[in-house]
Amino acid sequence: MMNKNVLITGINGQDGSYLAEFLLEKDYEVWGTVKRNSVSETQSTRIEHLRSNKLINLEYADLTDMASLIRILNKIKPDEIYNLAAQSHVRISFDQPIYTANVTGIGTLNLLEAIRMVSPTSKIYQASSSEMFGNNIDNDGFQRETTPMTPVSPYGCAKVFSYNISRNYKNSYGMFISNGILFNHESPRRGTNFVTNKIVKAAVRIKLGLQDKLYLGNLDATRDWGHAKDYVEAMWLMLQADTPDDYVCATGKSHSVRELCEYVFSQLDLFYLEHIEINKKHLRPEELRDLKGDASKIKKELGWCPKYTFESMLDEMIEYWKTYYKQKDIIYV
Ligand code: NAP
Ligand code: F7E
What we know:
Blueprint: E1 5-9, H1 14-25, E2 29-34, E3 56-60, H2 66-76, E4 80-83, H3 90-95, H4 97-118, E5 123-129, H5 154-173, E6 177-182, E7 185-186, H6 195-207, E8 214-216, E9 222-223, E10 226-227, H7 228-240, E11 247-249, E12 255-256, H8 257-267, E13 276-278, H9 296-302, H10 310-327
Parallel strand pairs: 1-2, 1-4, 2-3, 4-5, 5-6, 6-11, 7-10, 8-13
Antiparallel strand pairs: 9-12
This protein binds NADP nicotinamide-adenine-dinucleotide phosphate (NAP) and ligand F7E.
NADP nicotinamide-adenine-dinucleotide phosphate binds near residues 10, 33 and 84.
């Protein structure tokens, strides 16, 4: 039997790399887009360990370059497409709002239009985000599929455009497109300018005497943090359903950035307040204060069941950085 073909845009991202591993284990032939970088070693760092697998193929493409997307779709005609590529950093989206809108918003439309022309029967996953809700919270303290969306960042606005245009393409052209409205998800592969991995890496370095201080922004924001490995499984489940639909993915528990610091530093026998300073440059012009998601729909309809807790996810990240520095011959005291 032929292997199923899948295309992952942004395969070298945190989620793209875990999704590629997950799909290779299921014997998919995995195609991924990478963005050209002048330092070619950094183009595929998160998937380097998969490169020798004969079922993995990389192609240069960019969401802002529709011709590159058409070329790849013509070549592969994928059974499933996971659109994970984005400028995904919320604070940076305030520095580069137009670039973010072009990639994270219009980029999705470029891809959908290319798919409509070249491969309209492909099933599509669109990486939507809890950032789309802005500061709307239902009366019970949760956000869910029906919560209104009034985003508070250029990134959130771009994602709402992608969410709406993908629903419009589904309804107008009968395409199979599902939105995963994913709450924050982390791992040792998370970019170190996102708050979880920034804190864990710095705490380990402070323990090793490699740095003194950690500079952060708003410690009082709360987030619903899950593990990326659990969330890529949810993406796949959405495309195995008989009909397309939109689903929230979350743990249902939220913690403040302060609580996160407290936990990570205490796991290393440190007291966080002795090491943290606030630097205004990490504050956002408008902040999304609180996120806590209700994932009942995906649990009930698709049987999604996350395995990690907040603590086990952070413990894995702490272990990763301890091992990383041990391999560099820095002795852990
Ligand atoms: P990530 O680590 O930032 O990965 C994004 C990927 O997109 C990277 O491989 C990046 O390439 C690529 N990319 C950036 N601009 C591109 C462009 N113009 N054309 C083609 N590729 C481009 O993000 P992630 O955490 O894996 O998240 C995956 C998706 O889920 C994103 O769309 C994100 O917005 C969304 N999301 C994430 C979360 C979360 O908590 N992680 C929650 C909700 C939604 P380089 O590696 O070369 O930079
Ligand atoms: O910030 C606060 C910051 O950058 C989390 C992306 O994956 O999830 C992510 O977006 C919180 C915010 O993630 C620092 O103000 C304090 O309240 O880790 P983050 P995010 O903005 O929630 C959503 C769901 C996505 O879709 C996005 O793609 O932490 N915070 N001090 C800080 N944040 C950062 N980055 N750096 C700090 O120094």
